[in-house]
Design goal:
globular, four-stranded antiparallel sheet, mainly beta, 0% helix
């Protein structure tokens, strides 16, 4: 399984960029997926995740720091997960990683150690 994150860059505060995570090697619906971020000098932080239900629908959940501003979505046809970021703040500056759990683990988790596949990260720098 390979995950390829993209969409970062130097952005203005208040902006609304969209990050993407393209998966290859298996379907995104094979397990829960998530976004994490790591700011300079800080530990990796949970951003949000999607969990899958038995009827192949998904539902997202978010950390309190991004709830109401960020939204995760899935494009099954493209096998891609997106992170729509709105109302960017300087504290959103970080490297953003997408991650996937082992096949069959459908519940998203805020704990990075529960994810075994990681993208390479994409840097988001927010200037005020």
């Amino acid at each position: 399984v390979q995950l390829q994150a993209s969409g970062g860059g130097l952005l203005q505060a208040g902006g609304s960029p969209r990050l993407s995570c393209a998966a290859s090697g298996r379907s995104l619906s094979s397990s829960a997926m998530s976004w994490f971020r790591q700011a300079p000098g800080k530990e990796r932080e949970f951003v949000g995740a999607i969990s899958w239900s038995g009827d192949s629908t998904y539902f997202p959940h978010y950390s309190d720091s991004v709830k109401g501003r960020f939204a995760i979505s899935i494009d099954k046809a493209k096998n891609t997960m997106s992170l729509q970021m709105n109302s960017l703040k300087s504290e959103d500056t970080a490297v953003y990683y997408c991650a996937a759990r082992s096949r069959g683990y459908y519940t998203g988790s805020p704990y990075s150690q529960e994810y075994i596949y990681w993208g390479q990260g994409t840097l988001v720098t927010v200037s005020s």
